[in-house]
Amino acid sequence: MDAARREKKEHGTLAFPFQIYPALDGSEADDSDFIPYHWHPELEIITVDAGHVSLTIADHTYEGTHGDVFFAAGEELHEIRAAGRENQFRSFVFAADFLQFSRADQSEFALLSPLAEGRLRFATCIRAGEPGQSEIRALLAQIVRAWQVQAPGCQLAVKAALLGIVAVCAQYDRLIGHQMRPGADYKAQQLKEIVGYLGEHFTEPLSLSAVAAEFGLSPQYFSTFFRDNFGRTFTQHINSLRIEQAARLLRETDLPVMEVGFRVGFDNFSYFIKRFRLVYGVSPSHYRKNSLT
Questions:
Q1: pLDDT tens digits along 100-151
Q2: Within-domain flag for 173
Q3: Range of the domain at 188
Q4: What's the mean per-residue pLDDT of the chain?
Q5: Which residues contact 32 (CB under 8 A, 6 or more apart)?
Q6: Which residue intervals define the domain HTH araC/xylS-type in the entry (predicted)?
Q7: CATH code at position 189
Q8: H-type helices in the chain, by residue range?
C-alpha cells in the first residue's frame, strides 16, 4: 500500500467500502512486516494473530501480542511493524458511514452518526482477556469466514458483525467521546504533511536541515518535534522507508542488489547492506533467496 501519506487506493468498492488485508485469496504477500506511517478516512481494526506486533497509533506506541485488538480512527496516523513470519496481523478497513441506517433510530443518534462524524471513537487498544475482547475476536472471525466463502448475504453478514463490534464496545464502555485539544488539529495536519513529504521524497538525497526549512522550522526544533512524535530520529525514519522499499523490490523484481540499494536512496552500498541486515537479520541477497522459497 502507498502508506507514506493519505492512501489513494480504494478500500473495497463504492457500493461496499470494506476490505481485509492481507487479502484472504493469497493475492497479497503474507510476509509483509512493515506498513509505514499512513492515514485514510476509513476506520481500521487491527488484530494480532500470532507473535508480537509493534503499532504506533497517533502519538502512542503499543506492543501487541496474540489476541490483542487495536483501532485506528479515520485520518489517524498509524504504523505497523511485525518482523518475521512468526509475527502476524490482519487489518479490517471500512468506512464508518456505511454502517449508518437510512431510517434513524436511537443507535443511529447515539452511536453510528457520532462514529461517522468523529465525535465518538473506539478505544485504541483492547488487550487479550480484557472485557469485550473475546466477543470482538469472535465477530471478526465471523467476518473472515463470510469473506472467504462469499456466499449470498456475505456483505450483510460482514456489516452485521461490524455493527456487533460497535454494540460490544458500547456495552463494555470501549467507545469514547473525542474532543480535539486546542492546537491538536494543526499539529495533526503538520504531521500528515511531513509524512507525505518524506513518503514522496525518501529516495532522494535528504538532509534534516533541508526538510526542516521546507516546513519553516529550525533544524533543532524539527529534530526534537520529529523524535517526540514519531518515536525515532529523522534518519531512522528515512532508513526505515528505504529498507522497506528495498525489501519490496527484492521480492518483486530481478534488479541487482546494488541497483536496489541505490534506487531506494542509499549512496553507500556497504551502508545499505548494514542497515538491511539490522532490520531483517540477513543480507539483501539472502532475503531475496528466502523470499523465493
A1: 887 878 899 999 999 998 889 999 999 999 999 999 999 999 999 999 998 9
A2: yes
A3: 184-291
A4: 88
A5: 22
A6: 192-290
A7: 1.10.10.60
A8: 106-107, 113-117, 133-149, 154-171, 184-201, 208-214, 219-230, 234-252, 257-263, 269-280, 284-291
